[in-house]
Amino acid sequence: MKKLIFRKFALDTLIFFSIMCLTVGLIVWTLQAVNYFDFVTQDGHGLKTYFSYIIFNFPKIIHRIIPFIFFISLFYMIINYETRNELLIFWTSGISKINFTNKILALSIILTILQMIIGGFFSPFSQLKGREILKNSNIDFFTSLIKEGKFLNIVEGLTIFINTKNLDGSYSNIYIDDSSKVVSRIIYAKNGNLIDVDDKKIFKLFDGEVINKNEQKINVFQFDQIDFNLDEYSTSTILVPKIQELKSLSLLKCLLDLNTIQINKSFYNFSCEISLKNEIKQELFKRFYKPLYIPVIALLCCFLIILPKNNIKFEKNKRIIFLITFIIILLSEVSLRYSSVSNLANVIYLISPWVFFVITYLILYRKIKNV
Question: Is the separation of the CB atoms in 299 and 365 below 8 Å?
């Protein structure tokens, strides 16, 4: 009977938690999707590439919001059960407040493991997949970005200027400055068309001249027609994976190598360098250590069961608990940024969640026994 009663509370909390995660996650995801639209408007990627990339960023958002959403969910459910006198059923059924607290702790540990799994494996995997989509995509939105009298710089080392875009889709007075290779060149053409040949974007240019230049000489030749292959060029989008997109095992190996003075290893085009040691350490803390604050959040929310709703201090107690828990969540985020500044900062960050947990549990236990 006791298990069934708590199971209902746990189920209600998890359902509310899941709905909140999905709702808040979608809101944050939508806001980020708007910011990422530069991939289309400035970098020349197509809408298919854009949507694929932002979809793969969704697990990262869920990982970041889990502690706050768990706090809101647990806080709301305890208040809601107390308001509807359902917590009273727990106590009259023989469920002690310490037992209830321990059950909540068990639930929080499950969510802690869940956040570690998402942050340590699913989130970097999905972000890396999104980066690979950008890397393997072409500039398939190039045509719509071309505007009259505008310099186009969507490709690294390449600038294109179109004087006139004609009604038939062709272009007039085309200027191309290509400095992406050892021998840079400037191309001028009176007319041109952008066509697709075997899934490749080709700029077919007519009646113009090419100026090839290097440090020693300049060559100039005229042409009636040449093909300028745009697929040879990459966009200005960052294609090298960021630290948060790399596998946890790779980051751990890199950190161990740096600690044993074995440097200059690389993976996924990412160079394992000593200058990145603190950043790698911070990323691993975020994935596998910051979730340890979730049980602390659970204990703080359990302070809500100490006083019944008809106690005059109930509302004040509720506001204080909300404020303290929010500060702890904020502190876990802020302290992460400085966790790798020094060895002392490392130690402080590592012991903080355990200190908070022990102190909170002892205070809660004492208050429950004195009620």
Answer: no
Local confidence pLDDT in tens for the 371 residues of the chain: 567 778 889 999 999 999 999 999 999 988 887 766 555 445 555 566 667 777 888 999 999 999 999 999 999 999 999 999 888 888 888 888 999 999 999 999 999 999 999 999 999 988 888 777 766 665 554 555 566 777 777 666 778 888 888 877 788 888 888 876 767 888 888 888 877 777 667 788 889 898 888 767 788 888 888 888 776 665 555 556 778 888 888 888 888 877 765 555 555 556 777 778 888 889 999 999 999 999 999 999 999 999 888 889 899 999 999 999 999 999 999 998 888 778 888 899 999 999 999 999 999 999 888 76
> What strands, in cross-sheet order, belong to the sheet with 150-155?
150-155, 158-165, 171-178, 184-197, 200-213, 218-229
Instruction: Take residue 321 and report the two structure tokens written for it.
Output: 């608990």
Q: Are 195 and 202 in contact (CB under 8 A)?
A: yes
3-state secondary structure at position 236: coil
| pTM recorded for the entire structure | 0.75
